[in-house]
Amino acid sequence: MTDDSKLRGDGELTNDDITSEVVHYLDENGASVAGVAGFDSLDSNPYPDLQKAVVYGVALDPEFLRELIDWPDSGYSAECTRANGKLRELGTKLVSYLEERGFEAVSLGPTTENFDREKLAVDFPHKTAATRMGLGWIGKCDLLVTETFGSALRLNTVFTNAPLISGTPVERSFCGEYTKNFKKVA
Prior knowledge:
4 helices, 8 strands, Iron-sulfur cluster-binding protein, 4-stranded antiparallel β-sheet
């Protein structure tokens, strides 16, 4: 990592230390949320040898979203481009940090970079890692929903073999019968 992103400690680090350093770095450098998901026994992991996933997100500007009338528009696209740029930057630096410490790491890139337009799907949805780390749940909109940001969040995932401590997965939706902002498309 660069001089402006020095992490605490240069000696022998414990699993808790490494996990704290990773999350602290992401928090201090613009991530709105960050945590670790475990994929020890999950088939959807695209990198079976890398069983931990650092997932982090950058929130979309709430003031911009409140004023958004026609969606999607060029302003929304610009806001997503801003967030995706930050996610890419953090992913590159995080991979370097982990590799410098002798671990393997692969950044998937922001949410739309590996989108298959024919299948309308991605190889690995970041929301899977986000629910596995306890960030939120899959809502009625089929998006990740968080308590803090709702669905107004862009995500990235870095898979690694670093011995990080995983968060507690969220395995159910908390939307319940809530339908205030849910419109049926006819």
